[in-house]
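Sample entry follows:

_____
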Amino acid sequence: MPYRYNIALKARKRKRDIFKSALRDLASLSLVDYKWRSALFKKNEADRMEEEWMARMMGEDPAYARPMDADETKRGPLGNAEKSAVQWLMDVIEEEGKRAKRIAESDGELVRPKDNEEGGPLSDLERRAVQFLADISDSEVERVRSGTVRPKDMNDKSPLGNAEARAVLALQKVIQSEKARMDQSRKRGGEAVRPIDVPGPLGEFERYVGDIIRSERQRVKDRELNEGKLVRPKDASITSGLGEVERKAVEDWETLQNEEKQRMLSLRRFLSERRPMEADRESPLGVTEAFTVALLKGPKLVAKVADRVTELLKSEELETKDLSLPLPPSEDEDINEDTQKMKKKDDQLP
């Protein structure tokens, strides 16, 4: 038995060593990747800042290709979203690089994101997830010990207890409004009372739907008054939730269109400034682009020459009297005549 135990212990230790060695190798590769990505981000940011500085020195707006590089006054939803995503990704790369460095420098011990003392997006996310599960676990254990039936009845509520309490509160509001509606109906001798006539969630929902129905009916009338032309919900004379949603969507779409138009104009200038034949015509890329552009322009030049030749072939010969007409003086002849007149005036002076 001791012999078998020692064999099993050695096998388990060998597997653990293999796992630690593999983890350390992966961490080393991740560290190399982190250095490359970090250097790339920093280089791109430095180049972008230099371009902006040069453009401002020349009194121009810096050209840009990515929405996030637009000026703060011109940046729209896409630019703000990309800037937030890139900043989050850079923070994750920095955090994972530090974690890979700790694993590579250790004996292959696993380091979880939440163990990072400096923090970061992944560490904060894992901490919140672990704390969430721990709160539920501790609350459920305490609920079993105390004999409490429902999570919401605990003194120290967990996320489950808070969720149940909110759900129960919403149901209680619905039950109270329905009881009040039944009392009103009973007092009126069995007459139907709509949910909108009593305060409650169902009444608010019915009011919202009723506003949409009234607005759509009025929109049909507005169309008849508008010679049958379509009237959009946002342009209806009676506003509703549907009109507000469309109005907000149209505003966002117009903002997005303006952002993309500005980016397209800047993108054209951005590409023209970075064409190889413009930046360095003697480089291999510059020579290749110049040759390709000239080759593509060749058929257009041939077509123009053919059109001119065709135009000359279709032209008619001038008559004899038209050949004797004097040609209009050229610019050089006008200059010579003016010079001669000035000399004559100088000779006539005493």
The CA atoms of residues 41 and 90 lie 8 Å apart.
